[in-house]
Design brief:
With 186 residues, this protein is mainly beta. It has one helix spanning 2-20, and strands at residues 31-39, 45-54, 59-70, 74-90, 93-108, 111-129, 132-143, 145-157, 162-170, 176-184. It has one domain: monomeric porin ompg (Porin), CATH 2.40.160.40. It contains one helix and ten strands; from the N terminus they run αββββββββββ.
Amino acid sequence: MRTSVLLFGLLAQGVAFAQTNQPQANLSYTFVELRLVDLDTNGGDGFQVNGSVALDRNWIIVGGLSSYDFNNNVDTSIIEIGGGYVWHYAKDWDLLTTLRFVNASTDTPGGDFDDSGIAFSAGARGLLAPKFEVRGFVNYYNVDDSDVSLELAGDYYFTRQFSAGASVEFGGDLDSFSIGARYYFK
């Protein structure tokens, strides 16, 4: 038993040391973004305002507000807040995960309802070229019903602090396409 605990402790220290010595990418995690979203279900569209703040080299706080309108007089608002961990995998590539609390409010002609749950995302973010970033994530949502989707996105950096691009998310209950812009604070 004592040997197992010692081996586990040494392994944990090795993993922690390996993570702290990874090269840091030139990717910022302190930003705000606005996205215009088109949903495939019942002619829905809307917007998202998302943000992230880097607490240190690896930990981030994330949050967002989404509002969607559908052609059948249904409106949905979603608020997300949580945190995440960034692993600097290579010079211009990061692996990251986020865990968020989600509150969804839906207004329909037949009544209104609210629900809350969690969302988990895991993926990669990196620079294919000095001014072109790509992202890929697997997203899990558990609000009223469980859903898993794949998100692929790309942004072009016009300046070091401003980028714009497109995102597609598919799988699960609905698919979406969005265009948007990000402003980086550092």
